Amino acid sequence: MTQEKFVNKIAIYPGSFDPITNGHVDLIKRGMRIFGEIIVLVAYNPNKSYLFNVKEREQFIREIFSDNNGVKVDSHGGLLVDYLKSSGASVILRGMRAVSDFEYEFQMALMNRRQTREVETVFLMSGFKWFYSSSKLIKEVASMGGSVKGLVPDNVNRGLMEKFNNGKR
Ligand code: PNS
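Above: the input record for the complex with 4'-phosphopantetheine. Below: its predicted structure, written as tokens.
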């Protein structure tokens, strides 16, 4: 059993990030106080459709963390544990909002652990301000012309307005 501490380890923060929200950004910043490097991994399922394509999602994240050397951005279309093996990382970072997130997160953590014992999932509680927001709800509100300013970084807000063609709001 390895005695290495988390500090200075690389953590992979996987998600759909369709799109990245201020809740995600907050979690990454807080994660940087624990880990030496965080790879924000845009995980995609080739059979699923997304609002933003992988390159767009990666680009938003790159812009947001352009002045933070500790945050890297990558994408992957297969099993998360395979990415971990190839990257040499052993920690998955995930955020947890309400109790409703728990079951899904618990299932994923155990399924990943079943595939390789070399991995640990570390959870950070979501910031209180972001407790109720999600990419899904943000997209729904933006698609109907509602304002999501303050819930997403400015570049994402612009991207959403362009996507839904309501730039005048
Ligand atoms: O932001 P999300 O949609 O909650 O993130 C879910 C994600 C992307 C982390 C999860 O679906 C995932 O790990 N996908 C990669 C494929 C995989 O390994 N699936 C099995 C997970 S146990």
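Notes for the reader.
Helices lie at 22-31, 54-64, 80-87, 102-115, 135-143, 154-163.
The pocket of 4'-phosphopantetheine is lined by residues 14-16, 43, 79-80, 108, 111-112 (CB under 6 Å).
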